[in-house]
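Lecture notes, part 5. Sequence design as translation. It can be helpful to think of inverse folding as translation between two languages: the language of shapes and the language of residues. The source text, in structure tokens, appears below.
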């Protein structure tokens, strides 16, 4: 089937143009001011709506295998395509953990049968699996993931001799969750002594503190520079960290890069009063001045990527007291809508949103033929209608966990269509249940 998308407002490669677009098979065949139908095509007129490349989310936790009461590849990829995400990289802290080649193969098999979007998986590094890392086919994966601070799944790696060896042997970027574990544990003990088991949620930013992030990030940058390795730091949460990164060269030439997540751009520590455990993430949501500093560094290109760190937990789990409330929250369905609100509030341009959520992940991880609206690229495309609005509530949330930190928020845009490899997978609330995404290929 061929499809012509008519009257699109295309946001791509720093420009906004009005054009038609022809999809043939699974690729973009033509981009032109006026494409004349031959009579064989499916015609979709999106006049007044934006057409952007499918979002590439470089950090999600879809919880399968082993944690499927929270989410599955099927449920969370379905929510992802409804939010305009056409490709994702899933993290290794499942059960069992993705720290052996066999478990990596198992995940690829699960995704081939269940994922609505294109997929790949990061391989986890630990203090004990260096030999397994050395046997990897690095063309299969986007990156090696290291948890320098503990989080869901207990994959803490703290042996810096092993970390240095991983840098030296990896042929793909090493990506890190960067927090200093000793500082966190010292802070936690201090507030346990003060509050016992009733630590207020707004103390999360004091426990998972600026100091813990900054110390860890400085140290891992120094190691990457020593080994001349590719380092990508996930989910920055502090102004001071963001200032450690460079904007003095094109992204293609950077060896040390970083990202920020939707929640650190959208919330600050004032929001703990009302949202409590529902905005408890690792690293923590911090002060307003950190939120503003992250925005500045995103717009001046010190921060390279915007991602979600989508990490669902059940309502029952999130309603526990601080010590028993797990960190993380669902985000993939609402990330593009949230960023569009920031555009409306003049915090970022549409072109910059597309750069950070579509183009730059493709550059950083050398993804083959995705992330742009270009002739002969895969037709991963999203239609965003800025003329409709909706309010997030339990009736329209697609996550298996059934909740969102954005509940009650009115979004002034709607994802109306999502194409994955040229297939209309999501169409105004309806899904093509027969379709499955593809394994992402890397250059």
């Amino acid at each position: 089937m061929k499809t012509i998308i008519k009257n699109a407002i295309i946001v791509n490669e720093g420009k906004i143009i009005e054009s038609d677009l022809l999809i043939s098979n699974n690729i973009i065949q033509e981009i032109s001011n006026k494409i004349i139908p031959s009579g064989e095509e499916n015609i979709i007129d999106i006049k007044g709506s934006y057409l952007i490349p499918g979002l590439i989310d470089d950090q999600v936790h879809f919880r399968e295998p082993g944690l499927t009461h929270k989410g599955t590849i099927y449920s969370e990829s379905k929510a992802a395509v409804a939010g305009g995400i056409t490709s994702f990289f899933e993290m290794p802290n499942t059960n069992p953990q993705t720290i052996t080649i066999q478990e990596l193969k198992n995940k690829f098999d699960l995704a081939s049968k269940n994922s609505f979007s294109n997929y790949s998986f990061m391989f986890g590094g630990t203090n004990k699996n260096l030999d397994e890392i050395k046997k990897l086919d690095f063309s299969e994966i986007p990156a090696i993931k290291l948890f320098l601070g503990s989080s869901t799944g207990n994959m803490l790696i703290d042996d810096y001799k092993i970390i240095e060896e991983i840098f030296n042997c990896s042929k793909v970027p090493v990506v890190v969750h960067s927090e200093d574990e000793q500082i966190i544990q010292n802070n936690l003990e201090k507030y346990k002594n003060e509050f016992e088991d009733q630590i207020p949620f707004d103390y999360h930013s004091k426990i998972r503190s600026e100091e813990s992030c900054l110390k860890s990030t400085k140290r891992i940058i120094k190691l990457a520079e020593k080994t001349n390795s590719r380092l990508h730091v996930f989910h920055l949460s502090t102004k001071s960290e963001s200032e450690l990164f460079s904007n003095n060269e094109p992204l293609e030439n950077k060896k040390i890069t970083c990202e920020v997540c939707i929640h650190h751009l959208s919330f600050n520590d004032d929001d703990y009063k009302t949202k409590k455990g529902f905005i408890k993430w690792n690293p923590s949501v911090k002060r307003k001045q950190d939120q503003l500093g992250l925005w500045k560094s995103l717009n001046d290109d010190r921060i390279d990527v915007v991602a979600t760190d989508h990490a669902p937990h059940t309502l029952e789990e999130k309603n526990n007291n601080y010590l028993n409330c797990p960190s993380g929250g669902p985000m993939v369905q609402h990330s593009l809508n949230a960023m569009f609100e920031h555009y409306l509030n003049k915090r970022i341009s549409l072109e910059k949103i597309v750069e950070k959520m579509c183009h730059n992940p493709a550059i950083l991880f050398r993804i083959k033929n995705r992330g742009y609206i270009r002739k002969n690229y895969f037709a991963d495309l999203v239609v965003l209608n800025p003329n409709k609005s909706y309010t997030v509530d339990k009736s329209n949330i697609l996550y298996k966990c059934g909740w969102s930190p954005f509940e009650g928020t009115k979004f002034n845009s709607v994802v109306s269509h999502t194409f994955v490899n040229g297939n209309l997978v999501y169409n105004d609330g309806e899904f093509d249940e027969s379709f499955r995404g593809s394994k992402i290929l890397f250059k």
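The translated text above is only one of many valid answers, since several sequences can fold into similar shapes. The chain has a mean pLDDT of 97.
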